[in-house]
Structure prediction request, 415 residues.
Amino acid sequence: MTGTVHVIGAGLAGLAAAVTLARAGRRVALHEAAPQAGGRCRSYHDATLGLTIDNGNHLLLSANRAALGFLEMIGARDALIGPDEAAFPFLDLRSGERWTLRLNDGPLPWWIFSRKRRVPGTRASDYAAPLGILLSRRDRPIGEVMACAGPLYDRLWGPVLLAGLNIDPAEGSTRLAAAMIRESMAAGGRMCRPLVARQGLSHAFVDPALATLQRAGAGISFGRRLRALNFGADRVTALQFMSEIQPLGPQDQVVLAVPPGPAAEILPGLTVPERHCPILNLHYKVAPPPGMPPFIGLVGGTAEWVFGYPDRLSVTISGADRLMEEGRQALAEKVWAELQFALGLTMPLPLWQVVKEKRATFAATPAENARRPEAKTAWRNLALAGDWTATGLPATIEGAIRSGNRAAALVLAGG
Ligand SMILES: Cc1cc2nc3c(=O)[nH]c(=O)nc-3n(C[C@H](O)[C@H](O)[C@H](O)COP(=O)(O)OP(=O)(O)OC[C@H]3O[C@@H](n4cnc5c(N)ncnc54)[C@H](O)[C@@H]3O)c2cc1C
Prediction:
């Protein structure tokens, strides 16, 4: 008879571990500190807008095989939508110039040689710029191996690397950027089709996962914060929650899927990334103009990506340290003026909301990347999960779900 697997933290890493284990027939108890699941990837009702919105716009790619596998497992694969080609519409806010980057499906990148598909004003030879990232033997700041300036950088590599790493690319880790490029652009357009959770992140990732767990008989507790662990010689022997201590049986196992700060408090001596980078999202209560694609990349202004949902326009700004102290009203007005220009809107500022996620992701620098621990720990019945563990990827949905899958595999291998 196997024991219970206690999964601590119901973000996507914890949910992926819990679902995988429950489907493998293991008894699962999921413990979440917050009143809801989803962590940094969820929907909530915003009273100012009177709408259910996401904590931040999330873009996935068809390369995200673990994320798509997770959606398949919870019966929600259809919740992500996107074009059936790798097409990325862009607009330069300075010049008003528009273009759509269209990668061809196969791994041979002939799109680079087609003026209609590549970025206007660039030559095919410019596209070799990230070779320095791919060829870098050790993990270094991207700025050391690639010129982080120039027309193609401004219009392609800068936005792509910033969106993937959530840090000024010049500071970003070549190793993480290389992993991202190898799995997506270098693998061909088939792997770069953009995907968006049109009806919200919770609708796609969280609610169906909880329903799957419920059907499998898993225990799910909210408002249950793990404070500490008790240790024996080589095992975790008890879970200390705020209000009680739960002893563990000899067969019980633990997956710790909390963010790096709480993980380091719970496991003293654990090395974790310490620096974080913010993401800013602005939401406007207005329907997208007819014919607007699901999202548009914006360069040359403050807004970086605008997403059109049926009831709102939502803007993402990554690596947004420079804007964290800026007033909300001023930001909302500045970005609205950019949207008016980009989308040809004439109405005055509609109802808006600004969401500042200060600790959106760990800072994807070589130094912080080197601080990410493996999932396996020194304790036989304890595995770690989370986008900040050593997944080899930046902090993304894909990384979080892979980490949960890895922790589940360790648990299953441990009996
Ligand atoms: C604004 C924003 C935009 C983003 N955009 C994208 C994007 O476009 N594409 C993409 O792929 N990724 C994106 N990401 C990253 C993605 O959301 C994260 O990588 C992923 O959600 C992390 O999941 P996780 O389970 O590792 O961590 P978390 O979501 O942080 O989950 C950890 C959970 O543990 C709980 N917890 C904490 N302490 C305790 C405790 N002591 N006891 C019990 N529970 C505890 C927390 O409440 C939380 O629910 C974005 C993130 C943000 C914030």
User: Anything to note?
Assistant: The mean pLDDT is 95.
